[in-house]
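quick one before i forget lol
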Amino acid sequence: MMVDWVSAKIPLSHEKPIHGGQVVSYDANGEFEFSTAKRLSVEGSYSGKVTIRTLHTGIDGEIEFSGNPVKFLKGHNLYGSTDIIGLMKHALERIFRDLRITPTPANWQAILNGEYSLSRVDINKMIAMGSRAEVLAWIRVTSHASRSRHKSGGILRGDTLYFGKHSRRWAMKLYSKGQEIEVNGHQLPDLPSRDLLTQWAQDKLRWELVLRGAELRKQGIHTAATFVKADLCALFDSYKQRITIPKNEELPTATINQLPRHLRSTYTLWKSGEDPRQLLSKNTFYRHRRLLFAHGIDISICTTLPNQKTHLQANH
């Protein structure tokens, strides 16, 4: 498990505004309406980038930080840390050094104590599924049979499954990490261990939880100081449990009898310990898998070895 993305308001005493330019709006008559500071992009290791901008200046000044501190520091986010205070400390040290910014001792003490607010934090877990094909098949089938507390099923966009995609409080997305790192803009940089990392990612299903400001406040973890003390494993699992996914419990006899004969035969074979993939054509297997998944059964997971393909990868 790791912290993947952070948006935060960082205390920084400064007089000159920090930004990447201004967006200015004029009305139809050419009269000035408002201007907004653009975020300044700061490049980290291996081109990993985060953004900052001034929220207000002065002795009690603040800047807004947004980005992935792990990727900024290491060049990739395949694995990392849950220590949000430590991650932000090292990322801010790098930013302040590169931009020649000198925080006050009080600023640094607040940063080290985690005395700043969070408006978004992403945390994630990786699950090994055996192969990328299994990851993608599981995502496609799950998209048909799962629901979340957002009172809707998942939304499948390409090969990524979203729950609460437009929620202002929390959301989850599931995708193939091995596939993602081959997409333009997400490829791994020229790291010394690039080939090993690429190979390691191939069978990984990524569960990513997005917690926004209102949800962080509801959970009482809206500052870095409170967030770092939270049991993130328990927190993550509490949101994961809000998504209803089939659990491979034995079907009642009445339900079995109502299945079409071909599905009943496949279910009986699977329940006896047979691997339907060895007995059915590829298209038939995935069609039967999708239909049985709606009843809480995943025939891709062997009944005699239920945990073989789904062990969690934590803090690799």
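fyi Residues 206 and 309 are 14 Å apart (CA to CA).
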